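Would you kindly consider the sequence and fold I have copied below?
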Amino acid sequence: MKTFELSKKYKSLLDKKGINTPIRLAHFFAQLDHESNLVPKRESLYYTTIENARATFKTPFKGKTDLFVNSYLKNSVKMANYVYANRMGNGNEASGDGYKNRGGGYMQHTGADEMKILKARTGIDFVSNPDLLKEEANAMIAAIDFWNRRGLSSFADKDDLDKISDLINIGRLTVTYGDANGFKKRKEKLNYYKTVFEFK
């Protein structure tokens, strides 16, 4: 089992960083599984339908015509550079920052600002080379840093999936319950990982 192997392989690091109780481990790995299927990879952004592109990137495509959205389909580079332009520390669409700083690692860290924070806090130069997030150890170090930086263990202790999902997916707490993308799936994974880590 991938999760069990990872939790054992990185046990000393997880212990050191305080992700070391059944409920914290269950929430942590449920979110990693949802974000990346526990594969340290880069975000694809290869969309084939207008509906899926709009569902994922509601704000960037708000008020845009179907013809406009269609022009970004089946082109990962173009899609990333558009939907992530002028946000999260990225430059404009022409800068190429969107694709360079697209989601990566177990937690799908996104944006130039996030890469700078990770570099400063971990010493790993994700700024120059975000592809370092595709390496297992780097991805785990980055995910743990993000988790602790956002104080997510405190919400895990309260078994508060909504707030954890908000901070990971939306980037802030919201008043609406379950509005993070894929919340139902996140809940299913959490229930599964509670059995894995024998949370009673």
Remarks:
- The CA atoms of residues 61 and 68 lie 9 Å apart.
- The two ends are 21 Å apart (CA to CA).
